[in-house]
Automatic annotation (TrEMBL), chain A:
It is a multi-pass membrane protein. Belongs to the binding-protein-dependent transport system permease family. This is ABC transporter permease. It is found in: Cell membrane. It holds the Pfam family BPD_transp_1. GO terms for cellular component: plasma membrane. It comes from Paracoccus siganidrum. The keyword Cell membrane applies. Keywords: Cell membrane, Membrane, Transmembrane, Transmembrane helix, Transport.
TrEMBL record, chain B:
This is ABC transporter substrate-binding protein. It comes from Paracoccus siganidrum. It is found in: Periplasm. InterPro entries: Peptide/Ni-bd, SBP_5, SBP_5_dom. The keyword Mitochondrion does not apply. Keywords: Signal. Its main location: periplasm.
Amino acid sequence: MLRFIFVKLARALLTILLVMSFAFIVLRLSGDPAQILLGPDAPQDAVDAFRARWGLEDPLWQQYLAYLKQLAMFDFGVSMRDHSPAIQLVMERVPATLALTIPALMLKICIGIPAGVYAALHRESVADRGVIMLSIFGFTIPSFVLGLVLVLIFAVNLGWLPAGGQDGWHYAILPIATMSIGGIGILARFSRSAMIEVLGQPYIRTAMAKGLPWRDVVWKHALPNAAVPIVTLIGFMVGALIAGAVVVESIFSWPGIGRLIVVSVANRDLAVVQCILLVIAASMVMANLLVDFAYGALDPRLRSARSGK
Amino acid sequence: MPITRRNTLRFLGAAAGSLILPRHLMAQGRHRSITIAVQKITNNNTLDVWNEQSNVGERVFFPNLWEGLILRDWMGNQGPVPGLATEWSRPDDKTIELKLRQGVRFHNGDELTAEDVVFSFSDERLFAGTEPAGGTTLYAENFQPQNAKELPASIPGIARRLWPALRGVEAVDKYTVRFHNATPDITLEGRLYAFGSQIANKRAWDEAATYADWAAKPVTTGPYMVEEFRPDVSLTMVAFEGYWGGRPPLERIRFVEVPEVASRVNGLLSGEYDFACDLPPDQIAAISAAPGLEVQSSTIWNHRVTTFNKQNEILADPLVRRAFTHSIDRQAIVDALWGGDTVIPAGLQFESFKTSDMFIDGWAVPEYDPELARDLLKQAGYKGDPIPYRLLNNYYTNQTPTAQVLVEMWKQVGLNVEIEMKENWGQIHDPEGVKGVRDWSASNNINDPITPMVVQFGPNGEAQQKRDYWNDEVNQLSVVMETSVDPAERKRAIARLLEITEREDPAYTVLHQNAVFTGMKSELNWKAAPAFAMDFRASNWNA
């Protein structure tokens, strides 16, 4: 088991390092921050001074080594825009994003999974058809369309909710709804198909043949076996908690990490972009690790395979 | 940040807290507060006039926050009017003396004195030891920093562009200052009301721990002062009761950053915002049709131009460039893409040049004449080889559709122009590969024909520095424009510069003047200035 954890952690660190290296190179090859930040009319003296200040004239490998050295000392650099520490800028925005993504994730899980399971248990019924139809609607409509439609209905026409901003809890309702509707649809469809597949397995027939109550068959035999693919999907959703609200934050002018990503990438604010990517990569990797450990808890076969038994 | 129980609780608390922030900034008392939705508040996350030299910066700074010794007449002819100085005179060609308005207070209660003016043009604040062109710095010993502040690296270069030959500012007495230039300069007054030359409080600078602290809340003399600045989110300014021009009419002005056009429009329609800025022309009809709303359009001190790269073998021949200029139906672009809500200017000139009698009457952009364009291409022996057009995706309003229209118009006369989409300015200027035509805009910064002509296309302008363009006579005339104090000689020089750069050896061709569109509640009875600036002083509120 220790070896398993060690290998997983080593892979996680390697993944983060690769992401950071890739981002470092791509960002520097795709545009000069001095030109972008200072604009097309900036005098050459100003551009030269800016490049010298931020070490942009050094060879790429030198910049890369300096960056790795900084990272090793947990120095994430400062923003080229206003000289604020990059990590401070990023961490200031994380709570606002989590304020949307965590409730949205809860809604996805609390509505999507029961709806999918219910549809599977009542296959070919009106309820099943309804769930399928609504889930297709949910995950096919792009969030930027859905968000604007919700604003038109609830803010412009009905006047019940604000169109955007972050001045109170009710400002979060439409963004959370926009984010969760698609995820509910995906989880509902996934749960339904996973349950249908499990319900057709011989061990379900065996359980029913030995006279177990239907409730026990579902709770003790069907659901745990259907949970593995669902947990995988939830793992992706947990990994996207930090970075999964880029579009919605833009539509609703919500000052979270998604907005910071867009602005920082557009301005090639290198330290901030790299810091954001580090946080996102770390959260993705952490979510994957959690899913791996959850597999072991859900499926004894995987547990015994890891322990070599 | 160590992962401790306390930090974890703080973090979770912040996440929850962000949902229950109080609905603040409601109208208080008898004065109204307004909310303005903009695409961008600032580009560089500071409120420093020298670090945020952009259109969006102009909107949040002027005339509500920053003020200069001389002010721009925002709602009038855009000429100079007394500001923090009540009068000025010219002891000689290199010097301007100004009498300060007495009794002006900064937002921290300090009285404006010559010391603040001297500081505002000091090495510590701007020039960082850079020497003026044609002379040496005066009074360097007066400006020792009070604490260590890292001035953004780009500021000295930007400051020297506006004040290339300023040797220093002398405090003659408490209410009199003299600006000493190394070279004769007829445009010193224009430079004093240009973007950047505004006055900051010295004590506030000295007391700020870092540049970032100061630049997030600069202390100025404007009618509104900074209450809260959340970069990329919002800027709230509150009325300054001690304003020298009388109590401002609004309680608070709140700029909120709403990047999506549709969201700004929706917020305006739902009544959440009082103003929605940065509207594309295709949104005008929808907003104008809504009850209680209107759209104000205003042309700004900025022209959209297409520039040529003379290093390109085909464009090296001025006949080909002339063909480009004559094959554009500018009025069709203005009508189709701008709804007729902007104008085609008289070449690279602005109407406001008339305030100093530097406008060349009778000058116009090259006429639309496809036959002439075809004939010019025939004379040049152009064989239809491709000419690259490096293009950004709507950096300027309507940029991409305009480019598509242009390419079709050029195709009609036989010019084979190929669009190459680029992501940023670094890629536009990349010296690798072949350049051809590209987009640019030309700004009037000091209300003198020096800007944009000499500043952008002269020997030190970007067009020549990037080797897009060169012309010996243009360079000689640029020197006349910069150093002559004879208005008649300067006027002849700018007339000749227009002839060369727009007809004989084209460096660019003007397409149209840029315009901005602001949606607003009609009840506010407010007028947009011909600028990005939004005037919320008493004279323009419920006027």
